[in-house]
TrEMBL record:
Its main location: periplasm. Residues 369-392 are annotated as: Disordered. GO terms for molecular function: serine-type endopeptidase activity. It comes from Tsuneonella suprasediminis. This is Probable periplasmic serine endoprotease DegP-like. InterPro entries: PDZ (IPR001478), PDZ_sf (IPR036034), Pept_S1C_Do (IPR011782), Peptidase_S1_PA (IPR009003), Peptidase_S1C (IPR001940). Its EC number is 3.4.21.107. Substrate binds at residues 103, 138, 211-213. It comes from the Bacteria. Keywords: Hydrolase, Periplasm, Protease, Repeat, Serine protease, Signal, Stress response. PROSITE patterns: PDZ. GO terms for biological process: proteolysis.
Length: 495
């Protein structure tokens, strides 16, 4: 798919007389060189840097020793440090829209992005604004401006890429801007086993290193067929296995981000694993055909349609489930609310159920659910953690990270969907809460006899206790499968 039509491939400049820059295409077979093609493309490839401030919690290096209090207990104190990140991107329009990876312009942990700068090959810095970003696909669109048009490139058709095709990558590895590497397409639709709906990459042996993220992978016609995203490496450096998001995946998402549209994806609510090895043998099924359902999330589309643990999903809306076309990918590309046939293999018999596809939750919501159910390889979730709902005051005073209770989390914890409270995401191991047995998944239902229905409720109690010079807060805590109990939690010491 092309976002720009009517222009030649390669870096392009809008001109008043509509004259076109001639294509530079090496002859078929092994190219004599990439210099002419690179010269045409390189002006549209940019370096991206961010400046961010990150909050970190200091620890007392003498904690647990006789010297713990000698220099004051600094455990739980929050400090702020400055950090930077570097990556790559490419301009896709004369008016300055820039495509990159979401992780290139996202803050670390509890950080905040203060500034994003796009640097063009001539060394000019431009302040950039975020137009849109999508965590699930790891794509983002920025905007830069100037009075004259920018050179730009366009998306090509990655569906036509074949193993063995020549490609070149241009980017900013280790901050070395304008670096060009060449190679071939090693594989198409390469899956890494992450379970993500976008675990579907172009694999290349063109050297890709840290800082190449977000940069373009070009075919020999000068079209962007991939966005460099990750490497597989035991050392952290390039060993010839680079992964790029295919243009056929990226281009529609980029277009929606530019138009300000919400990115919606389909969702079933199942935990799956590939049908391979002993599992395929035990079921008497072909290797790498279909995906095995390990668990079904209560109340979600799969459960409502009658899909059960132990089922093998073989087709979704008439499309085979394979390594190249996973269940996650197929479902994610179905519009929420659409009813589709899903073919199953259950206890030696084949059957078809109709599923009304739901809307995929955000990665943050899925990460929270995964924290509490302890499962990996979920068709509809990715690993990670969310701290967006946590409170600095609660972390600093109780040593706890908490998040609001939701119906989804309640289902994972096995409690009623109308249960009120906040849920513990993480605990400072040196806190009194940790010493008294609090753990992830605990529900805080009240504090100092005040009902807790939000993070701000608990924060207010903690701040009042601190202002009243109280040393502890009385929490009513419900652990999984137990009745609520009270625990007096000592506040962290402050200097």
């Amino acid at each position: 798919m092309s976002l720009i039509t009517g222009h030649p491939a390669g870096a392009q400049v809008a001109q008043n007389d509509d004259s076109q820059i001639a294509k530079v295409v090496p002859r078929a077979g092994a190219p004599e060189g990439f210099a002419d093609l690179t010269a045409q493309l390189q002006p549209a490839v940019v370096n991206i840097s961010t400046r961010q401030r990150i909050k970190v919690q200091s620890q007392n290096p003498f904690a647990g020793t006789p010297f713990e209090g000698m220099f004051g207990n600094r455990g739980g104190q929050t400090q702020t440090r400055e950090a930077q990140s570097l990556g790559s991107g490419f301009i896709i329009s004369a008016d300055g829209y820039v495509v990159t990876n979401n992780h290139v312009i996202s803050p670390e942990g509890n950080g905040e992005i203060e500034e994003i700068t796009v640097t063009t090959p001539d060394g000019t810095d431009y302040p950039a604004k975020i137009v849109g970003k999508d965590d699930a696909s790891d794509l983002a669109v920025l905007k830069i401006s100037r009075t004259k048009p920018f050179p730009f490139v366009k998306f090509g058709d990655s569906a036509k890429a074949r193993p063995g095709d020549w490609v070149i990558a241009i980017g900013n590895p280790f901050g070395l801007g304008g670096t060009v590497t060449s190679g071939i397409v090693s594989a198409v639709y390469r899956a890494t086993g992450s379970g993500s709906p976008y675990d579907r990459y172009i694999q290349t042996d063109a050297s890709i290193n840290r800082g190449n993220s977000g940069g373009p992978l070009f075919d020999m016609q000068g079209n962007v067929i991939g966005i460099n995203n990750a490497i597989l490496s035991p050392s952290g450096g390039s060993v010839g296995i680079g992964l790029a998001i295919p243009a056929e995946t990226a281009a529609p998402i980029v277009k929606k981000l530019m138009d300000g549209q919400e990115i919606e994806r389909g969702y079933l609510g199942v935990q799956i694993q590939p049908v391979a090895g002993d599992l395929a043998d035990s079921l008497g099924l072909p290797q790498n055909r279909g995906e095995f359902v390990q668990a079904v999330e209560p109340g979600q589309p799969a459960a409502k349609a009658g899909i059960e643990p132990g089922d093998v999903v073989t087709k979704v809306d008439g499309k085979d489930v394979t390594n190249d076309q996973t269940l996650s990918f197929l479902v994610a590309n179905v519009k929420p609310g659409t009813t589709i046939p899903v073919e199953l293999y259950r206890q030696g018999k084949r059957r078809t159920v109709n599923v009304t596809v739901g809307k995929r939750p955000s990665n943050a919501e899925l990460a929270q659910s995964q924290m509490f159910n302890g499962n990996d390889g979920d068709d509809d979730s990715q690993s990670g953690s969310d701290s967006s709902s946590t409170s600095e005051a609660i972390a600093d005073n109780l040593g706890l990270q908490v998040t609001p209770m939701t119906a989804r989390i309640a289902a994972q914890l096995g409690v009623s969907p109308d249960t009120k409270g906040v849920v513990v995401l993480g605990i400072n191991p040196s806190s009194d809460a940790a010493q008294k047995g609090m753990s992830r998944g605990d529900i805080i239902m009240s504090a100092n006899y005040r009902a807790i229905e939000s993070v701000s409720d608990l924060e207010a109690v903690v701040k009042k206790a601190r202002s009243d010079n109280r040393d502890s807060v009385l929490l009513q805590v419900k652990k999984r499968g137990r009745s609520p109990q009270y625990a007096a939690i000592r506040l962290l010491r402050k200097d």
